[in-house]
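Sample pair:
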Amino acid sequence: MSNNVHKAILPISALIGLLVIVAYMAGIFDKVVMPGTKPMSQAYQGAEYVVGERAIIHNEMVNANITAKVNTLVASRLLAQLKSLYVRAGQNVNAGELLATIDDADLKANVSRVRAQQDAVGVQLKQANKQLMRSETLQNQGLVAENVVDEWRTKVDELKAQELALAQQLEGARVALSDTQILAPIDGIVVERLQEPGAMLTPGTPIVALYNPAQLQVTAAVREQLASHLQLGDKLKIHIPANGMTQYVSVSEIVPVADSNARRFMVKLDIELAKNVKPGMYAQLFIPTKPQMHILIPRELVKRYGQLTMVEVVEQGQLHRRFVRLGQEVGNQVEVLTGLAVGEILAVR
């Protein structure tokens, strides 16, 4: 009988021992400590700092893009074949530089034809003027009728009208011929070749895309709460991670209609003297928010223990270590997000 009791007690004892170990590891036997506070059994009678708050301005970061303020599509004005294209993507061009040529054989032939007609009409007009002068002389002598003089005057007027019309045709043919030389309208960089030699062009067909690298913008979709406080001319900070550039830029345009889906306004800012910056680059725009009250304490009052930050709080003459979560630094002070309240006292030592 005693052997059976002994065998039964062993499993029960083992189970009780296991439960005690689990309870110990769970901290049931530990003294309860409030979260974020580490007690110190130490009296304090030194200098003190009273926690206060002040208004600070946060900068909200908005994703933005670099865009070209001046974009140009150089297009054909003629119905003709593209003969030559002299530029490549990424190439720098100057205003007035030859970019491409269009087949001009038909236009040259048209100019020659109009010139020939103009020469022929000029010869006829010269003869008609002579006949008119001769007729007027004979009429004064009573040798020809007045209607003969009128016929030659009419002839001269008709030839003058033809000469004027041909002069206008010649001017139009020359303009059309000059349009076969495609020139750069601005100083800029070639973005893309949109056509290749041999392509048949119609009026308005784009051939080359250009942009001016000296006139760039930052464009950003800004939520309406922030955009409502922006004004033209405001200076805002931008950062371009690709090249590490940081500078202040001016608000040049705020699109007056918001995106109804995202509730954001498109804001554009002009960049000055931007080196190694190209359209399409990612940028960060920093917009100041309304001033808000935040707790700030001197940085030297913060103690660091690895990744943790603590302060020494004086409560009833006793020091207590308390964990705090910090925000941004403002001068020689640091913002406290959680862990402290206004009016609490910190030890200064």
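Helices lie at 2-25, 105-140, 146-178, 224-227.
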